[in-house]
Amino acid sequence: VCVEFVAAxxxxxxxxxxxxxxxxxxxxxxxFSSVGGLLVAIANELAGTYGSKWFTIAVPGFLTGLxxxxxxxxQHEAWRYTxxxxxxxxxxLILIRPFLPESPVWExxxxxxxxxxxxxxxxxxxxxxKTTIVTALMFACSYGAAFGAIQQLPQIVPGLADVxxxxxxxxxxxxxxxxxxxAKKAVMAKxxxxxxxxxxxxxxxxxxxxxxxxxxxxxFAVRIASxxxxxxxxxxxxxxxxxxxxxxxxxxxxxxxxTINLDFMLLGKLPVTTMSIGVLxxxxxxxxxxxxxxxxxxxxYPVHLRGTGESFAANIGGRMxxxxxxxxxxxxxxxxxxxxxxxxMKFAYTxxxxxxxxxxxxxxxxxxxxEQKPEMHHD
Length: 379
Description:
Elements: H1 2-15, H2 19-31, H3 33-50, H4 64-67, H5 78-84, H6 90-96, H7 104-112, H8 129-148, H9 153-156, H10 161-172, H11 180-221, H12 227-247, E1 256-262, E2 268-273, H13 274-296, H14 303-322, H15 325-333, H16 343-366
Antiparallel strand pairs: 1-2
């Protein structure tokens, strides 16, 4: 996935030499990656509804000694089917790739024999060192906000008062077996199913917010010349809203305003609540930054280093450092000293702190982000 993102963005950028056209193509094309997020939400909804009737996911017998086994109670978990659904988009990619033309700029240099070999060391040359380091760190901040805060919603949502009330009401309706062990399993399964369904609803709101953010980025990218100012349109409000949303997540009354029926999209019914609106806002300001980097990075490096430079920022900065904030949040939330009392409250407070840290770091680093000229840098 990481390699495909880098290759696709570099390829698209080189196909459109006109700056105005290039910004629009990159912006709106990347916006549709959030449609992919909604498709994952649909897959999760289907898995949660019908997963118990699907094929069993188990470890083959000859591998159990090496990787262990999957307990029968967990062989139909929705997340397992959702994870496997990620293989589906790979099929059209495999079929399409052989028919895609090479970038005209790249092909011209290759034919002329002037295409230089990429080098990791070269992206740290005096001319590019600042760009490489700053973009990698800022990419890490963008991913840190997503994985250190927004992706922790499944751990936070069960602490909402309305979710607790729904769980209590549904558990009370259960006809429990007399065996206490079996009764406990039934209660846990029902609780887990309700909490997962509500968490998926909040994830859908986050994806919708991300989709809006990406489209806004595409809209502003062709109207704002300064790349720093373009990014700060999302960074500065995010610096205010993200920590506040997560710090207050379990403290405010989570009022339900109305419900959107999205059955025709296989997204089910989507309650619009106080905190789901907050999640939408968080997704808007955070996910929009991912599109920014897709627009910015291709212009930061010459042709032979374009993929290398983008890969370093996206994969080392974003995927390796940025996604590690999920571990940071989980680790801090698990400490006895972390305030909050209950696990959901601890996760909410920790997510707020992580969001504050990465957004402050991102805003500070934006002052060191090199500005760009509209023309592509090929040599």
